[in-house]
Amino acid sequence: MLENYLPILIFLSVALALGLLMLSLGFLFGRGSKTEAKLSPYECGFDPFEDARIPFDVRYYLVAILFIIFDLEIAFLFPWAVSLNKIGIAGIMAMGIFLLVLVIGFIYEWKKGALEWD
User: Fold this and answer.
1) Which of 18, 107, 113, 118 has a CA that sits 20 to 30 A from residue 87's CA?
2) What are the two backbone dihedrals, phi and then psi, of residue 80, each rounded to the nearest 5 degrees?
3) Residue 114 neighbours by CB distance under 10 Å
4) Quick check: helix, strand or coil at residue 98?
5) Cα–Cα distance between 112 and 58 in angstroms, integer?
6) What's the number of CA atoms in the CB half-sphere (13 Å) around residue 91?
7) Dihedral Cα 9, 15, 16, 17, nearest 10 deg
8) d(CA 60, CA 64)
9) What is the pTM of this model?
């Protein structure tokens, strides 16, 4: 049984050794000059306007949910479209239910105002 897992163990140990080697070389040969400019917060080339620990606007999360909804839809529609002639009416009904759930999510996003930016 060990012979089945030996290549994986060798791969993981070589990857760990290379990772540790690269980190060690970076610490040994990297320039470690820590000036005030390097240690200051960086925000698009400007000085930070306010604290970085402010809460995000809820619309950011709603847009993220919207992206996930449509990303999942596309990821599931491609294999469904390829096998459409084999899955029959049951597959069409299952995809209809799936798309209905996604449309409900889209309507939720629309009602919450995620698509309106002021």
Assistant:
1) 107
2) -65, -45
3) 19
4) helix
5) 10
6) 12
7) 110
8) 6
9) 0.46
DSSP state of 46: B
SS3 content of the chain, % helix, strand, coil (to 5): 75, 0, 25
First to last CA, the chain: 62
Residues 6+ apart with CB under 8 A from 80: 87, 91, 95
User: Which sign, positive or negative, has the C-alpha torsion 13, 14, 16, 20?
Assistant: positive
Would you put residue 113 in left (φ > 0), alpha (ψ -120 to 50) or beta? left
Contact (CB, 8 A) for 49 and 43: yes
Instruction: Give the 3-state secondary structure of residue 18.
Output: helix
Q: What pLDDT score was predicted for residue 116? A: 78
Q: What is the DSSP string of 48-60?
A: --S-TTPPPPHHH
Which residues of the chain have a pLDDT value below 70? 41-52, 118
Q: How far apart are CA 63 and CA 68, in angstroms?
A: 9
